[in-house]
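Q: Hi! First time doing this. I have a protein sequence and I read that you can turn it into a structure. Is that right? Here it is:
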Amino acid sequence: MPVTETQRAVEAVWRIESARLIAGLSRLVRDVGLAEELAQDALVAALEQWPDAGVPRNPGAWLMTVAKRRLVDQLRRRERYDEKLAQLGRELESAASDGTTEIDAAAVDHIEDDVLRLMFVACHPVLSTEARVALTLRMLGGLSTDEIARGFLVPEPTVAKRIVRAKRALADAKVPFEVPEPGEREARLASVLEVIYLIFNEGYSATAGDDWMRPELCAEALRLGRVLTGLMPAEPEVHGLVALMEIQASRSAARSGPGGEPIRLLDQDRGRWNQLFIRRGLAALDRAEGSRRPTGPYTLQAAIAACHARARTPEETDWVRMAALYEALAIMTPSPVVELNRAVALGMAYGPAAGLALVDALRTDPALRGYHLLPSVRGDLLEKLGRLAEARAEFEHAASLTHNGRERTLLRERAAACAG
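A: Yes, that's right. Below is the predicted 3D structure, encoded as structure tokens:
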């Protein structure tokens, strides 16, 4: 097998197996940083050995065995090799050539628990939001620091420092490698869901740069969400988040034109919406809403997205229901951004004047100062009311605030259209 093909195979295996590998090692060593070092050592060994020996029948088990051997070597060198670890070493040294051992077979039952533990560790509230995102993509997504940096348009050294500091913070805080106790689990789960949705949103509507979307980040967030539904199937908000992401991702192909220019939701060709994603999203929403537990914010947002997904045309959208859902969301999670979205729904349900009244009430909110969507929404409502000069000024103001090049172009085009 040529080296280039082997490298592609190694990369593919790493993307699939890295989270399980690091999670399993973290359970053994109780140190996320050391676990990643051991996993990276195994990856280097694969790059060195697989071109000649070929990809093993069970590559994940092969990587785990090599990583455990590295661990045994380290413990020997450090002279902390007690009887339990000696037994581990003997079993690893007698492993079959395909990399499977009795330990690996016995560990299969732990894989799901290990990955779930790693999710809770990587998204621990002791870390900053930026650190949680970077560590999650690194540990659970198998992305390199370069890939994470390109995804979020930040320098690679910045991402590397975030990851190093995150590992150090986890070690200093003595964060245990475990799923939180039931009393703490809800708050920690909220952090996990927040990180996954932040990753998705950055891919869905890039905050900076010249690309309108970064599909690879959307795909990674969806993958993490789907994994989490398998790990925590009884949590309705997990299904709610996946439903929201599936439905939003269904529009990806219709959100940009041939030149990459953004296409607004109401102008999109709904025939290009991915019906498989919509079906998955609606099924996940059914599971979330079918729970006997109170409805959460992600489930509410998924229900809002479903109003779009179920409508064959913009005119068929149930805007009244959407406005009511936004009102419920605003009560549950008060936020000026939610109120701004509610203003859009009110404008569609009851006329642009109704939406404009709410937007005008938000103009003095300090949380929205510098937020480009506030003048963008206001410009849209003013345009519908025929107040074109005011609308033009709002679109130009919004264009000056956004950091995304594609969105800036769209806003300037709308401003020019208002000028006649």
